[in-house]
Amino acid sequence: MASDTGIENLTKNLDFVKQLCQDLMVILPEFDITDEKILPYGLKPHTRSVSWIVEQVIVQQMKFNGQKLGLSDVDFSMPDTCLHDCVVATTKGRYHINVKISNAGSTKKSKNDIAAVEKLFMQYTANPNYNLIYACFGIRFRNVHISFEPDYLKVFSPQFLDIYVNPRNDKIQALYDHEPQLRTRKEFLRLLRTSSRSIAL
Length: 201
Description:
Elements: H1 5-27, E1 31-32, H2 51-64, E2 73-75, E3 86-89, E4 94-103, E5 112-116, H3 117-126, E6 132-142, E7 145-156, E8 164-166, E9 171-174, H4 185-195
Parallel strand pairs: 4-6
Antiparallel strand pairs: 1-7, 2-3, 3-4, 5-9, 6-7, 8-9
């Protein structure tokens, strides 16, 4: 592994976001997605059925409680095509965060789509200061009721992933729970380029 101050700085940013999300978990409310009269048999316990709403609860609660969390601002007015869901600003810097959720009640371990390789490569190439951080929260289903699992939180960077690209959709896939592979930004971009068929060499 090459020595690089960027690795150290990114690791510090990951530690900050992890602590921020842990503090937020204490605040996040339990809530009902809808009335049981509307869905008398409840929600299918799959994140697809609730992901966008739960992600909005997370980022909006982060902004609403920003002062309590020591944040200057949280901007979540991102287009759907954006790699990150929100930009968190503090006196020390800005953090581009993509919020994901996982069914904490499931024992199944499978790789998840993380990001389109070409899109990630283009964003990192166009903006040398851009670093994407993923924050994955665990949720539990009880009929139409959603609660957050306090013992489940995974914070990671795509730069430190064990890169596997799904050839069918050219997206990076990974387990949310994984050991980081520390690498420099230059090494990361080289790996993206060689792993994808959509990036011109």
